[in-house]
Amino acid sequence: MSPSQPTGTPRPGTRADRRRRTEERILAAARALFAESGYDRTTIRAVAAAANTDPGLVMRYFGAKEELFARATEAAPEAPVSGTPEEVAELLLASFADKLDTDATATLAMLRSMLTHPEAASDVRAAVSAQQRQAAAAMPGADADVRAGIIGAAILGVVVGRRLLRLDGLADAPTEEVVALLRPAVRGLVDGVRDPGPDVGAGEAGSAPGAAPASGSGGTKAAEGAEGDAEADSAAQS
Prior knowledge:
This protein is an all-alpha fold. It has eleven helices and no strands. 68% of the residues lie in helices and 0% in strands. The N and C termini lie far apart (134 Å).
């Protein structure tokens, strides 16, 4: 007597199992083509050919190209961001590391398409904004939303530079090295620590070369001496 199948799991060789395998094949082909060519240049016919199936079947399973794109680039939900500032920073960095380590095909498909396809741009913005709002709610300071936005933009920029632009140095750098280099900036932004910038009062302690004499007794004597020399010159000429 054969063991019973788990509820909801299609038996191998059934119609449901064959459909699942076909859908996975279509989605894999769609991700690869969207990543290589972007949204505008990818067609249902090209996806069907790459998946070794019929265009009508692609549309039957996924509808129009926009629905196929949404399914092909669908990402797992982000882990909630909360806790102390240090915990928030580490959660954001862990999410960032995951973006660098996971299969690049779906990410690249989204990044390449967002420049020309409004829906792709909207999906990227929604994903970044959702994490940004959670981080801002857990960060101290009145400008937490601005700092969270800077973190989101920095992370997105690094992902674009690594995945899409393939920037020298960044493209092949170990993930742990990239995360370690970004950690101080992320922690500083989460904490709200600001660099005070150059010390404006530093130049007042001592005069720079060529600076005008400081006011006071030394400056007054120098001025009086200059006036006396001018009077002597005037008397000699008269």
